[in-house]
Input
Amino acid sequence: MPVKFVLFDAFGTLVRIPKATHPYRQILKEGIRQGRRPRPDDLHHIMARALSLSDAADHFGIKIPADRMAEIHGALEAELDSIEAFEDGIRAVDRLQAEGIKIAIASNLAAPYAEPVRRL
Output
């Protein structure tokens, strides 16, 4: 049976984050400092919704001062800017597409991480 499509996991397979700052985790840590207990489904809520950092803080009822939120936004931007493609992954995608095989790329990271994957 011929291969019709290939599904790749984006991070760790096609791209990587060499300078991880974990901005969404920073939001949750701010909540811990404020007495909020982490829940097992916290990351699911972040990953399953298109939440910005501010939206994530609001969703969890975490109050973050503007200067700290700006710092976390800067960390996210730095992390997104640091994302780079694996050369062999790009070559594999190019070869598969040249053969007419459809490509799908999935990720379980938050919505802002999609743009660098598309770009690369």
Notes: The longest helix spans residues 66-82. Residues 1-17+84-120 form one domain.
